[in-house]
Every structure is written in C-alpha cells, then in structure tokens.
Amino acid sequence: MSEGALFHWSYRSHSGSRKPRNDDSVVAFASGLGGAESLPESGSRTLSECDLVFAVSDGMGGGNAGDLASSLLLRGMSEMIPETFKAAASGFFPDSLEHLGDTLRAVHEQINVAAASCEEQKGMSATVALAWFTPENLYLANVGDSRIYLSRGGELTQLSKDHTLAWDQWKRGQIGEMQYRSHPRRSALYEVIGGGHPRMRPHLAAVPYLPGDRFLICSDGLIDGLTEQHIANALSEDLSPTGALEKMMERALRSAGGDDTTLIVIHL
After folding, report:
1. Which burial class, exposed, middle or buried, applies to 105 when counting CB atoms under 10 A from its CB (0-12, 13-18, 19+)?
2. Does 2 fall in a domain?
3. Which of 28, 121, 125, 210 would staple 194 via disulfide (CB 3.0–4.6 Å)?
4. Structural domain tally of the chain?
C-alpha cells in the first residue's frame, strides 16, 4: 500500500447511564521519530512521515480502578509503539507483531504491579482493541471483548477475537448471534490486561488493507446496542466517518446505553 494513502477517522466515547465515570479510554496518535503525536477527534492523514495508531480500552475494577487500568494501558502503548519507528530509522527493523505482543505483556505487568500496590485498585484490568497502520500492513492486537471490524465491498468481517467461551460457541456455529447476545456468560473473559493474572495471551494479526476499506474499533458497550447487521449497514452506506459514527452511537445508546460506549471509525 502506498504511503500516500489517505486515512480519514472519527472517534468518540460516551459514559453509560449506570455510573457517572467513564471506564472506557480511547487513543489516536501518529507514531514517528518524535514519538507519539495525539490526533484530534476527527481528521485525515497519510502515512508519508508516520504510522497511525487507534485503540479502545474498557477498564474493569472497583472505585477508579477501571478508569485507571484503561488509561494506563493506552498510555503505555503510546509510549512503546513509536520505538519501532525510531529503530527502523536507525537501520534496525524489529518485527512489528512481536513488538506489539511484547508491549502488551509489559503493560500487563505494569497494571498488575500498580494494582498490588493499592487495595482499592486490587484486581483492576482492562480490555484492548488496537489497530496500527503502517505503509505495509495493518497490525492489530486485542485482548478481551473490545472489537475491530473491517468492511470491504459491503462485507463485514470481525478481525479481532472475543476472549469468551460464548463467542467461541457462536463462531463455531453452535449458537446463533441472538443466542450469543443473551448468553449469561457472554462477558466472562478468559483473557484481560492485568487482573492479577500471571500470563496474558493477546490475539495478534497482520492484515493487508485496500483503498475503500472501512474499519470500526469499539468497546462492548456499542455491541450491546447493535447487531452485526446494523454495523455492516452503517459502514457500507455513503457516510463520512463522523456520519457513520453518529448513526451507530445514536442507535446503540437508544437500544442499550447502560454501559460506556466508545468507537473509532476509519475510512481509507
């Protein structure tokens, strides 16, 4: 893919009705020689001088622990991912997926250490869905049930993997989407960042992207109010990233809205 490919994006986070604090975090930054440069809520950019990174994290834990876990995670990613850009400029070319996995594992350990130092933060954890666009590929990582979707030619594909047994059953065809959505164990995650677990195994993938591709990165709050058909329709319509975002956010909040809802829409 050419470095001149133009990415358009829009992102937003909405606090759910169940609690006053938003435990979701969202980050968007350009990764270059100068480190991480924060990106505005909507905009456009090429990859001529930088990579582009977009991520959503849903924090869990009592008190302010969920909010802290999600913000710690994304801050750690924004500090560590630019190191590959600097290494490449120096003539070293680290494997991007390996670096992404190592970065997630390092943040996992940091969150566990922070949780162990304070009783109020004990057991804090977070999910993450991250998309890292380079001139060669999209490198993605996810842990938990925050998601990444690709819409190509009107066909919707989930690129991420939910770390729940209910999702595994759905994708194996043992249950349908509606059965999955009402499954009592739908939110029982077997992989999270932190949570006091000694190990964490992220889902990692490298995906080629094409002109016309559209991407959605979201927390599970959006999924509570939207079926996959709703998502497919919004991403395939002739809407700007902000227009698609507003359509999905409005429907999700009207249908559910109890949980924090965060989404990023990217058009290429």
Report:
1. middle
2. no
3. 125
4. 1
Q: Quick one: the chain helix, strand, coil %, rounded to 5?
A: 35, 30, 35
> Which domain covers residue 177, as residue numbers?
7-267
pLDDT in tens, 143-177: 999 999 999 999 999 999 999 999 999 999 999 99
- Report pLDDT digits (tens) over 114-138: 888 888 888 899 999 999 999 989 9
Distance of alpha carbon 102 from alpha carbon 108, whole angstroms: 10
What are the structure tokens assigned to 193, written together? 């960042």
**Is 63's pLDDT higher than 80?**
no
State phi, psi for 139 to the nearest 5 degrees: -105, 125
Give domain status of residue 108, yes or no: yes
Contact between 114 and 68 under an 8 Å Cβ cutoff? The reply is yes
**Which CATH number fits the domain that encloses residue 168?**
3.60.40.10
Residue (of 199, 188, 200) closest to 142 by Cα position: 200
pTM strictly above 0.85? yes
